[in-house]
Amino acid sequence: PSIPRHTNRLINEKSPYLLQHAHNPVDWYPWGQEAFDKAKKENKLIFLSVGYSTCHWCHVMEQESFENKEIGEIMNKNFVCIKVDREERPDVDKVYMTFVQATSGGGGWPMSVWLTPDLKPFVGGTYFPPEDGVHRIGFRTVLLRIAEQWKENKDALLENSQKILEALLHRSEMHLQSQESPPPSKEVMATCFQQLSNSYDEDYGGFSESPKFPTPVNLNFLFTYWALHRTTPEGARALQMALHTLKMMAHGGIHDHIGQGFHRYSTDRHWHVPHFEKMLYDQGQLAATYSRAFQISGNEFFADVAQDILLYVSRDLSDQVGGFYSAEDADSYPTTTSGEKREGAFCVWAAEEIRALLPDPVEGATEGTTLGDVFMHHYGVKETGNVSPMKDPHQELKGKNVLIIRCSLELTAARFGLELGRLDALLREGRRRLSAARAQRPRPQLDTKMLAAWNGLMISGFAQAGVALAKQEYVSRAVQAAAFLRRHLFDATSGRLLRSCYRGKDNTVEQSAVPIQGFLEDYAFVIQALFDLYEASLEQGWLEWALQLQHMQDKLFWDPKGFAYFSSEAGDPSLLLRLKDDQDGAEPTANSVAVTNLLRAACYSGHTEWVEKAGQILAAFSERLQKIPIALPEMARANAVFHHTFKQVVICGDPQGEDTKEMLRCVHSVFSPNKVLMLADGDSAGFLYRQLPFLASLERKDGRATAYLCSNFACSLPVTSPQELRGMLCP
């Protein structure tokens, strides 16, 4: 490789996204004191650019503007330029995104914001083309105009930035009214169900026309709604909506039929043409959601999809030391000799490629049928490509096919006169050959940053799948990842989580010179993971760590005045606002997850003040939950669980005994949104017995493994048969 012409300070960073910009002619600084001091000393404006490694338009803006020498010179002369990876610093991203959304009515990445030397934003936007066009002002022009403004009207600009900041502070404080009590569960559930039902796509599933995101939070809400309304028509519809959506997604092009796992979102309502990046947080949540769908329906189809996701993550997103990487990019080189990357190049197929790979005649099928014919029919492959030009504005997918299952196995089998088992084997062979061919293509960039929050979501995915699918190897993988978190993303001396660590040379794990401290979402998702992992492994050490982290989360983030948790901790002078997220989107918001975490923590510890805190969060978001719960489906779900009270399912028995295992299998096979499982193994010196004295009074009946269902620490009569227990769990 040629020696780079330029190198800037980002060369010393660990984030793959920042390192991608280390050879731009722009004199980039990372977010930090060195850049702030320079801006103050030289009295220069700051240009802040925020993106992430799998962001398509971030790559475009880099190629067009940040790699342009002249534009680089304008930037270096007039501004102190700072680059931020939003996945490393969600706190910085949220502060300035709040500003961009408030002032321009839209937002997105790359985010481009200009700040005064004391970090106050005064103008911002997203992607800018390099030069002026008919409809859009070019980046070069914007840079020159802003530099001019700073020279001519500095005082007005500073005054304006102060007003903007005051307005933002006012907005962020007005947001939450601390009502006295949580909103009523019945109304919130009914409204959220109604809003989802109204936006549901009856044909293809999902909750919008396009683009369509997987949004597991919606599906988990519907599962809980069904569990609490099983016998009503609305309950049946909720379940049907969730299962149909999961089925259509798995058949669609958003699901990688050759390389497994799910892409980030679909550009059309059919789940067909995706944006091809794959994010760890989607894999973690979807593995859990598909496992739940199997638990509820008993349909092996859903179990297969969950296993497919976990195969992808184990193979492509796993670090040897046990952690999980963040993402795989959408863009890659079509061939080893290509000069430029294309979106989806790694995943799409020309019809003739498939014909060449699958030329074998199929015995027993209609005359002259090849394996290619069968495969192409089943996966919707067309000779001229199956991507509509409307969905391919840059003609990157012209003549290519994104595999999608348009008809059932039965229909394909009937069409070629094959029996189902035979067809299944033929399609499997086709996928195997395409997979081998694809392995020869240049791979998309892998973001090897490891984030505590997303690792938490993935641990939950492995733990819940391990339990629902009765696969011990998934539980073991979750244990390995939790041990990784404890070793590399936790500071035992301070008791605090760290946000990120990185793959170093020779498979070592590296940390930044100044480690980034964990944010609220890191605590919420890791605590949730540890509770899921305890229920799957029954190792009390995970429980003990979860409760310690919950105390730390309360200390660092709780807002005693307005209730609920702030997203970031106090005391960072470079952060202008402390915000609270109020949207469950591609990931649930941390306060939503915290409600359920607090209720589970109270069940395992007997600390009733945690139940009180959960109620205070729900009260703080009460108005939003009553008006537009569709914006907070995970919190609406938690609100229902809060009102229905958690059931402690206590199994008294020897962990190794067959009778105990049978009772546990029974608990694991039932979907019940408000159950908390604990094993009372008789060790009165153990962590659980010390936390919950009432366990000592529960005993094994006739020496056999015995189950008790307890609520608020009062317990049912003992049962010793899995059938009786199932009856109690599914009233």
TrEMBL record:
One BP annotation, GO: carbohydrate metabolic process
The gene name reads Spata20
Offer one Pfam family short name for this entry. Answer: Thioredox_DsbH
User: What is the official name of this protein in its record?
Assistant: SPT20 protein
Where in this chain does the record put each Spermatogenesis-associated protein 20-like TRX domain?
Answer: 7-168
Annotated transmembrane regions:
none
Originating species: Fregata magnificens (Magnificent frigatebird)
| InterPro entries (UniProt xref) | 6-hairpin_glycosidase_sf, 6hp_glycosidase-like_sf, Ssp411, Ssp411-like_TRX, Thioredoxin-like_sf
Q: Which domain of life is it from?
A: Eukaryota
